[in-house]
Amino acid sequence: MQSEPAKTHGPAALPWSDLQSFLAIAESGQLARAAQVMGVDASTMGRRLRRLEKRLGQTLFEQSRSGHLPTSAGERLLAQVRAMQRAAEPIQRQPDAGGITGLLRVSVSEGFGTWIVAPLLRAFTAEHPQLTIDLAATSGFLNPSRREADMAILLARPRSGPVVSRKLADYSLRLYANPRFLAERPPIDSVAALAGLPLIGYIPDLLYAPELRYLDEIGEGLEPTLRSSSINAQYRLIAAAAGIGVLPRFIGDASADLVPVLPERQIRRTFWIVTHQDTRRLARVQAFQSWLIARVEQQRERLLG
Description:
Blueprint: H1 16-28, H2 31-38, H3 42-56, E1 61-64, E2 67-70, H4 72-92, E3 102-109, H5 110-127, E4 131-138, E5 151-154, E6 163-177, H6 179-183, E7 199-201, H7 215-218, E8 226-227, H8 231-239, E9 244-248, H9 249-252, E10 259-261, E11 267-276, H10 283-298, H11 300-304
Parallel strand pairs: 3-4, 3-5, 7-8, 7-9
Antiparallel strand pairs: 1-2, 5-11, 6-9, 6-10, 6-11
């Protein structure tokens, strides 16, 4: 009698499509987004995940308010599948492979995303039409170390976590006001002259980064009285002559409605590119990083003033 073939265990014995689906869920954090990446519906993704968990006899994800988080078993499998994905990357980069595909999620600050990245992004999408891009330009950042994003442009270099960071660019900020606002008041020729004037800035207990405490560097004791968590809302308030506030020069200098106040008082900050160490070599991540570095270098004069 012919003996039964020996059972093979581990990722190599599993359908590649199931492993790709698992990887998409792990990297996107949600079934719906993973389904979009894979070009299937969410119910199909759910079936693939349940089938994979049944074959492995392990639970691979935990449900949280933010989505699917890998369990310890999921983390171990993720490391193996990413190694397989990296091995497949040279094949995917062949000219007949159809270009870079999948989902790329990039987290950027609201101002940088709105005023610098978004106007330039059309050129990148034209080069990679099969790539889905999430530009999370919000008052806060998604965390690459928790795989909330493939890449984040942060205001400070992370000191811990499974991430890789590099400097993207420096940029400058200064005070701005609408000329109409200034015409109704005595000349502002010193920091002391700002006392008693309506100042615009961030809501202190909603600051998502300490680097946003701009008024502290303009002068001691300055506090905003008209506050918003949105830099774009602050810009609109300043342009509407509601007060004086600090803006990045790539926003303030670009507006015909604003003029600098105490222009010698400059603030310097830095943007950092941060990626997870396990995904930084993916073709879509490397392509976007190379493109962004080149485009930002061309914008150096706008960033620094």
